[in-house]
Structure formats: C-alpha cells, structure tokens
Write a structure and sequence with these properties.
heterodimer; A: 534 residues; alpha+beta; Aldehyde Oxidoreductase, domain 4; five-stranded mixed sheet; four-stranded mixed sheet; 16 helices; 19 strands; globular; B: 337 residues; Uridine Diphospho-n-acetylenolpyruvylglucosamine Reductase, domain 2; five-stranded antiparallel sheet; four-stranded antiparallel sheet; 12 helices
Chain lengths: 534, 337
C-alpha cells in the first residue's frame, strides 16, 4: 500500500493503485487461522478449575502474527481459569499472506472455547448463562500470563450485569423452554461472552478559540465512518460548557495542523481521544481563566468558564470567548501558540507552531492516571432455525449487550456493535477462502466464492444494548467498542447451532449446509478442522 | 501472476438490432463470435482475459428477443427477457409459478434486472479451476484439477462425471424442464425446436461444451406449452447465502394429480451433474402413487442410487434425497408452539 504513496511523492500528483480481486488474494491478507486443543476442568456448578490449551496458528507466508498468544490471553480473561497453561506454535506456511484482522486472536480464542463451555453446560446440566456468569471476569480482573511475577488486569468489567440484562432482554428463560424440534426444523439458542481491548492512553488534544469566538477542535482521527473523529470532542465541549453549535471540527488532512493522535485501529480511539479531548478542554479552561486574570486582575481561580463566557466567581461575565482569544493573541507565548507545553508530542508542537497567532491556542497531553488495561465486553445471544433435511439454517434473532463504558453516541454505537457482530456472524455462517493445497492456489477469488454475508443472511433487526456504566479509570468513562463483539458474534451462533443439533456436528467454522448434513448423516463431525477451506 | 486481469481485452463489438442481422453476423463471423446476452457470465470471462473472442455480438439491441407472449398453447418467452420481468409477470406467476419462483432466486435483484432467461440457460459452469484459467479437460487440457484427493470440489458433481466434474449452475433450467419447455434455435438452415433437457450436453459428448449451440446458432425463445399450466409445482434452491449465490442444489417438479394420486410428473435437479438432470426413473416409479412424503422417501432414495461423491461433496447425496422427497411430498413445516 506504500507504493502509490511513494510514487505520488515522486510525481507530485495523485496515484491510484488498482488491483484486481484476484490480486487482492495475493497481497490483501486475511485472518490467521488458529486450531487448538483445550482441556478444561469444571466443578459441578460449572466453575472452571483449570485449563490446558495447545494451539497452532497458521500465519501464512512472510511474517508471524500475534493471534495465537492473543487467543490464549483473551481466554484467560474471559473465563478466569484459576490455573491455566497455554502452549502454542505459530507456523509460517506456503500459503497466502495473513495479518491481524478485527479482534486478532480474540475471535479465534472465543470461537474455540465457547463451544466447549456449551458442551460442558449440557453435560453438567447447568444453565448456559449461569455457567458463563460463574466464570466471567468482574472488576479489575486478571488477564494474560504473569510478567515478572505479576499479572496485568482490567480497568473494570461489568460483564455479569451485561449477562443479566442481556438474558432478560433476550427472554432467555422463555426461549430455552421452547421445543427443540418441530417438523423438519430444529431450533436452538446460544449465548457467548466476548471481549477485546478497548483503549490506549497518552495522546494529545489541540484546540483553538478564535477571535470570532468559535472553538475549533483539531481532530487527527482518521474517519472510518464511525464518526469518532467528531464525537470524542463532545467531551471537550462539555468541559468548556459551550454549545456544540459554537464548535468546529477541523479534520481530514494533516496540513490542517493536527495533534499527535492514535491510529484508527485497535478499538482505541474512543478511549484514547476522549481522554485527550478532556485534557485539552481542561487546559483551555485554565488558560481562559489566566487570560481573564491577566486582563481584569486577580487570581485565575477567581474566574470560571460557563456558557461560552469567562465569568468572575460570584459576579457575572467578564469576557466572551472572542475577547479572550483576542487577548490571547496580544499576550502571545503559551496563549497564542508561540509556545507549546513541553510534554506534548513533536507532531503536536509543529501544529501548534503552525497555528500560532490565530487565537487562544491550547494543546495538552493526556496524562490522566489509569490503573489497569482497558477492555470492553459483550454478552451475546443467538437463536437459530435449522432445516435438518437441507442443512440450511437461519439466524432468527441476535442480541449483543455491551459493557463499553459511557455511551458517547447511541447511533454510532449501534453501527459499531451491529457491524462487528455481523463480522462475527460472518465467520460462523460462511465467510472463507478456499485454497487448493496441492497447487498452493487460491480457488476462491470473488465475493460469490468467499461469501461475505449479505443483509439477508443476518437477522432483520439485530438487537443491541449497552450498560452505560462509566469506566472508573478514564475521565469520560468511555471505552472502545469496535473489536469486542466480533468473537461472541461468531460463537453465539455456533452455540445456538449445537443447542439445536447436538455437540457432534462441527469442530470448525464456518458451519454450512454441507457441514450439518454430512455430520447428521454420520452422527459425528465429518469435516476435520484442518479441512476448513473447502 | 503475469497475466493482467480485471481489464477488458480488445475485441470487435457488433450490436445487431434484429434477429436476422444477428444471424447473418453469426454466420459470417463463425467460430470467432462470442454471443452476449445480459453479460453477467461473459464479463467474468472477458475481464479475466481467459476467453478472448475476436468479435463480441451483443444481443441487447434486439427488441424482438424480449418479452413474454401468451400463445394459443401456453406462453413464449424471448431469450433476452430479463429474469425480473419473468419473475413478476402475471401469467407466469399464475400458471407457471415454478418458473417464477426459480428465476426469483437467481443471484441478486441487480443481476436479475440485467440477466436474461437465455443467458441463464446458456451460462457456462462455475468450477473455480476452469474459471480460474487452469488448463483442465473442459478448457481443452488433459487433467481435472477438482477431482483429485485434495481438489476443492464441495460444489461439484455426484452424477455424470466424465473427466470433468463441474455442475450446471442454472436455477431456471430445472423449472423449465419440469414444465416441458421447448427451446427455439435459429440458424441459417432455419428453426429448430428442442426439448429443454436436450439443449444440454455432458462431457462424455463434448467436454468443452455445455450445450448444443454451434457457431451460427442463436437461442431466440423459450416456448412453454400449457400441458403443465397451473398444476402442483415445487421448487427449492439450497445455497450458502440467502441472496447472490449459485445453488448448492435445486429441484423443480410439476405434478398432475388424480385425487391425491400422481397421474403425471416431471422432476428435475440441477447442480448435481455437468448437465441438468431430469429424473425419468423417479417419474416412472411414482406415477399412480399418492403425493405423500412416504412416496417422496422412496423417490428420494431412488434418485441418489447411482450417485458417486467426490472428496468434499458427499452432503449432496442426502441433500438430493431430501429435496426430491420434498418435491413430491412437500415439506413437513416447523412452527414454534
């Protein structure tokens, strides 16, 4: 992907790289596959006592991916085994290139582990939701292996609440009481828990209050369509107590002077950049109070910022934002961007310098404390109807219930949750590539062969909800949400299928009509996991 | 890959506006002509640069090849009539519902708007080795890449394999066979009207061809006699995705009933063999028997008796058994209490 950028630089003109769908299969990369064997011990009430996992990751040609270890790490978090051993091997193969895809390792780990939990619940006669509830993380839950004798842990986790509220919304108790088989149709319901990382720290915010009285948030976030590029700055507007209509978002081009910003990946943006927005808006409040003190005398703490004005505590407006911006330009230095805070990134310093003299120019680094690592969580529920004569099945209902911290923007969250849930569902129901191992040739080269899901392959109305409980380790309370629903999106469907058909049908994804029919005929899984690509 | 893909190759384009013009052009051009209907099969081949015709004969400008006409004995559908028009046509829906149903599940709405009945009938197989440009038997080579111990053949044939194991992918054809459709082919010698199932040829006859069309031939219309108008129909397509997918298998039947007994039946299955299969032995066996799932069970077992699965398509045997059963006795519907 760097080729058009390099050519464009040489030519000083736009360059487009055009590749065919076939070429996409050689250079576009796909998710590394993980195949594993897990032995799990349970108490009678379903609590895991120990877990032993061995997994092999096929990472394709050229370079190793981290999916294998990540799969084990997410399993250690989601099911909280008191004792766990993971052994893994990542193998480079003479197949096409692979690299991290949404929820790398998380999807694979959850998809391997969840059907085992479903089977265990059936064998132990423990309710599926109850079994997950007794094992799932809570609060500052440990994750991953010990490093120098100490394990990492989450900032917070309210997955039990998500399971409880999700089960109530999905009417879990009513659904499991329904008949499993009517005519040629078998019905099943499944639940899965899911998690992935939800945020990073340490980036910068940058805003300018202009002589016109506008608040300009410079947003370096790459807009992937989630609107985080805009939404995170609502936090800044709230801190400054200005109407959103008084704010402008400057984005989309580094020539417009952007602060040091997280990459739009790893589900980190909402968390990382609400912190940066909070930080810079808090710094701007302080600068406004300092400007007022320098103009009208007294100590900055005698002033406050409210409703787009700087006021004297206990006594009325002393400056509008417009007046403060003009005064900042007069004052220069740290106030109008001729100086930048020492701790902001060099990229931010360049942007601040470029904006110098345009108003009250404020930049700030997110230095808020955080105890633990940030993860988001989902409880996910699926219902399927399987035609046992054709093997064809439909997902008749699906609910993703999130523990994602404070909800910033419900519609954007809806898009994230249902979109990534659909990605997970896609892995369950058909998305694949097909490689001929004899010739090392990718035979699936087009969408009708790789089968990404269509709108008719997912429930008409995927349900979603969120706890809206703030994460206590971040000032706005919001966590990232992109990747966490992917694994459960897949596993809840698999668990619903095994509820409908039994545990001896599949040990792989995707599960298609052929998987179901041949196994129903034989009474045992007929497609070996290593033969997923058929 | 050194071959440039996804870019149209150079060819001469001719766009006749009448059947007579098209026939003359096809006769003049001979072997080098590529006849294009809706373009949905053609453009794959051309943009992949696997087929490189000298002259493309685009039929889209010939109005007389379009439309559905009610005749004295049934209906006649122009070969360039779109699948959407057929799926929504009142007479087709009323009396030949099996065809309306079959064409309404072809691919996707956009493809049905562009795709034609003639094109759907005459499309080439979708074996991914063959379509990928591999020099297989069907492409004129001397090997089948799909029929090896590790060949990826989930979608391939359980019947009629003869070096080539590709299957015929059409959804409309089984329905047309079930209602005894006749295909009209024009060439310089005149008109030829043949039964639907006789339009297709298997690899044992000519491994590089899928139908009897020769250079200079033009499929102009599909005649559907009233013989099976309004009888009991069944159509089902099983596919991985609910839209935009070729069939893993499909089945169509037309049954005349005397009370609850089958007095006459035609049943066809596709995506199981290099050519669409009419199940004449099943038809003969169930005539006079009640149209029940018990009769269907017997028929289903009979239908798959000589099936030979490949490494990854054994599921097609129970699938065909069950689809044939349903095509005779219907589906035992599930409904939640």
């Amino acid at each position: 992907m760097v080729i058009p950028a390099l050519l464009s630089k040489k030519l000083n003109a736009p360059v487009m790289m055009r590749i065919s769908r076939e070429e996409e299969h050689f250079i576009g990369r796909a998710r590394p596959s993980v195949e594993g064997r897990i032995k799990v011990g349970f108490t009678k009430d379903g609590r895991i006592t120990a877990l032993d996992m061995f997994s092999v990751c096929n990472t394709g040609a050229y370079e190793a991916a981290g999916d294998n270890g990540s799969a084990a790490s997410i399993i250690s978090l989601l099911y909280q085994p008191p004792a766990m051993r993971w052994r893994g091997a990542t193998v480079m193969t003479n197949t096409l290139t692979r690299s991290a895809m949404s929820a790398p390792g998380g999807l694979q780990g959850i998809t391997i582990m969840e059907p085992i939990l479903a089977k265990a619940a059936r064998k132990l006669s423990v309710d599926q939701v109850a079994l997950r509830r007794v094992n799932c993380p809570e609060g500052k839950a440990p994750v991953g292996p010990a490093v120098k004798g100490k394990r990492g842990y989450t900032t917070s986790c309210f997955l039990k609440e998500a399971l409880d509220r999700g089960a109530a919304q999905f009417k879990w108790s009513e659904r499991i009481a329904r008949p499993k088989r009517v005519g040629t149709k078998a019905y099943g319901v499944g639940v899965a828990i899911s998690s992935y990382v939800g945020g990073t720290v340490g980036f910068d915010g940058l805003l300018v209050i202009t002589p016109e009285g506008r608040v300009r948030f410079h947003s370096g976030i790459g807009n992937l369509g989630t609107e985080a590029v805009i939404d995170v700055h609502r936090a800044g507007a709230e801190i400054l107590d200005v109407n959103w209509e008084q704010c402008d978002i400057i984005w989309g081009d580094t020539s417009k002077s952007m602060p040091y910003t997280c990459a739009s990946g790893g589900s980190q943006t909402t968390h990382a950049m609400t912190r940066a927005a909070h930080s810079v808006a808090t710094a701007a409040r302080q600068r406004l109070k300092e400007v007022a003190a320098k103009t009208h005398g007294g100590d900055p703490e005698h002033y406050d910022v409210t409703k787009g004005h700087v006021i004297r505590k206990g006594g009325g407006s002393v400056m509008t934002f417009s007046e403060a911006a003009k005064k900042a330009i007069e004052l220069g230095g740290i106030y109008d961007g001729h100086e930048a805070p020492a701790d902001v990134h060099k990229l931010t310093k360049q942007s601040v310098a470029a904006l110098a003299g345009t108003g009250l120019v404020v930049s700030s680094k997110d230095t808020y404390p955080r105890d633990g690592n940030t993860y988001s969580f989902f409880a996910q529920f699926a219902e399927v109807e399987v035609d046992v004569e054709t093997g064809k099945y439909h997902i008749t209902d699906f609910l993703s219930y999130g523990d994602v911290g404070t909800v910033l923007h419900p519609n954007a969250l809806y898009g994230q949750v249902t979109g990534r849930t659909t990605l997970g569902i896609a892995h369950a129901i058909g998305q694949k590539w097909v490689l001929d191992p004899e010739y090392g040739f990718m035979v699936s080269k087009r969408f009708y062969q790789t089968k990404p899901p269509t709108i008719l392959d997912v429930p008409l109305d995927i349900q979603w909800n969120a706890l809206n409980i703030p994460d206590p380790e971040t000032p706005v309370g919001a966590r990232g949400v992109g990747e966490p629903p992917v694994g459960g999106g897949c596993a809840a469907v698999l668990n619903a299928l095994s509820d409908a058909l039994g545990d001896e049908i599949f040990r792989r994804t995707p599960v298609n009509a052929d998987t179901i029919l041949t196994s129903l005929e034989a009474g045992r899984p007929m497609q070996h996991p290593l033969m997923a690509h058929i | 890959m050194a071959v440039i893909r996804d870019v149209m190759p150079a060819f001469d384009l001719v766009q006749p506006t009448s059947v007579a013009d098209a026939q003359k052009l096809l006769a003049d051009i001979g072997d080098g002509a590529w006849v294009m209907a809706g373009g949905l099969d053609s453009f794959d081949w051309l943009k992949d640069r696997i087929k490189k015709p000298e002259v493309l004969v685009d039929l889209s400008g010939i109005d007389e090849l379009r439309g559905i006409r009610v005749t004295g004995d049934g209906i006649e559908i122009g070969a360039m009539t779109t699948l959407t028009e057929i799926a929504t046509h009142a007479e087709v829906r009323k009396n030949y519902g099996v065809l309306a149903e079959a064409v309404s599940v072809v691919a996707s709405p956009q493809i049905r708007n562009q795709g034609t009945l003639g094109g759907n009938i005459s499309q080439d197989v979708r074996c991914w080795y063959y379509r990928g440009g591999w020099p297989c038997y069907r492409a004129g080579g001397n090997i089948c890449y799909a029929d090896t111990p590790v060949g990826r053949n989930r979608e391939h044939a359980i019947f009629g394999a003869n070096r080539c194991v590709a299957v015929h992918p059409s959804d409309s054809v089984p329905a047309l066979i079930a209602i005894d459709a006749k295909f009209v082919i024009k060439n310089s010698k005149g008109d030829q009207v043949i039964d639907a199932e006789d339009y297709f040829i298997g690899p044992e006859y000519d491994i590089t061809k899928i139908n009897i069309i020769k250079p200079g031939d033009l499929l102009t219309s599909i005649r559907i006699p009233s013989t099976y108008s309004g009888v009991k129909f069944y159509f089902e397509k099983v596919r991985d995705r609910n839209v935009w997918d070729f069939p893993l298998m499909n089945v169509a039947s037309a049954i005349k009933l005397d009370g609850n007994n089958i007095s006459d039946i035609r049943i066809a299955v596709n995506a199981v063999s290099p050519r669409p299969m009419r199940l004449k032995n099943v038809e003969a066996a169930v005539k006079g028997k009640p149209a029940t799932s018990e009769t269907g069970e017997i028929a289903g077992k009979m239908a798959v008796e000589s099936a030979v699965p490949l490494q990854f398509n054994a599921y097609k045997i129970p699938l065909m058994r069950n689809l044939v059963k349903r095509a005779i006795g219907g589906v035992q519907e599930g409904k939640w209490a």
